[in-house]
């Protein structure tokens, strides 16, 4: 039996991993054993048992409970803890997702023990080396044996870096997720009713990226932009308590009185709000794509994005952290006619598992 150790540490990674885990349990339960490891990198109260029930995935077998501290300290602690798990489990493959410190720690631990690594979302590049995520994804790609690319651009990025071996264009597992959960969210979530919202008549905003939340100038601009928008239409802002505290310290609480600030939402509620928004304004990579999947215009509060396809087709616009640009773009969102299947056909998870099984047979 093929033994796969999946390493995740943040809520979005669990959501991506759920698509692959579902394929394993549905079609390959007799051939593949998956062991789920949660590093604990992002503590999220919404990642309760309800979260795992919504995603229909088992709770992690290992929870390392490592969070906080500097990037180096966190990654170092994870490296040692993951290494101990690898010694215990002895997997055939280590499966990693995305670009977090958990991704990098899993990749390094496996590489040093010469355990093959498969990287989901390989080849993504923002070309901004100030971002910790950019460093993580580049290093993870370098030590991975299988590189599962979500887009043709990701394949090209790897080729430009001289990486061609083990590269597969499989599509985006988040597209798999969006197809699977979009109708479930409509039937199971009452988020619109609970928040008093009307479909197509509100703005959904998210802000969590350190380049915005840790920069007082950028965060003030974003806060004031959302306040401007909320004076004319409902603006819903699921917000981490830490960011809410920083906004208060900047003296923006009164200015944000019309913004509907809520705690981070359960998964299906968030999907429901994304589907029904008039426009989404965000600094999240995942939310950018989900807006595209659900045909909702997106305004991205970053200076660059690794999901450049959404920008090229006109569904997404980059505005940085400029109050004026944010307000203008959200007030006049562009809904283009073009919509290409740049993220695959919704079968990325199946292709990933089939490739892993094929590699295992070839090495047997």
Describe this protein's structure.
- The chain is an alpha/beta fold and 364 residues long.
- The protein folds into 2 domains: 2-172 and 344-363, Rossmann fold (3-Layer(aba) Sandwich); 190-331, 3-Layer(aba) Sandwich (Rossmann fold), CATH 3.40.50.2000.
- Helix content is 48%, strand content 14%.
- The protein contains 16 helices and 13 strands.
- The protein has helices at residues 11-27, 49-55, 71-89, 101-112, 132-143, 152-160, 173-188, 191-195, 210-213, 216-230, 241-249, 267-276, 285-293, 308-312, 323-331, 348-363, and strands spanning 2-8, 32-38, 62-63, 93-97, 117-120, 146-149, 167-169, 203-205, 235-238, 260-262, 279-282, 298-300, 316-318.
- A 7-stranded parallel sheet has the order 3-2-1-4-5-6-7, sandwiched between helices. It has a 6-stranded parallel sheet with strand order 10-9-8-11-12-13, with helices on both faces.
- Helix 7 (173-188) packs across helix 13 (285-293).
- The longest helix has 19 residues, at 71-89.
- The relative contact order is 0.12.
- The mean pLDDT is 93.
Helicity level, as a percent range?
40-55%
Rg estimate, integer Å: 20 Å
Number of domains: 2
Q: What gross morphology would you assign?
A: globular
CATH architecture field of the largest domain: 3-Layer(aba) Sandwich
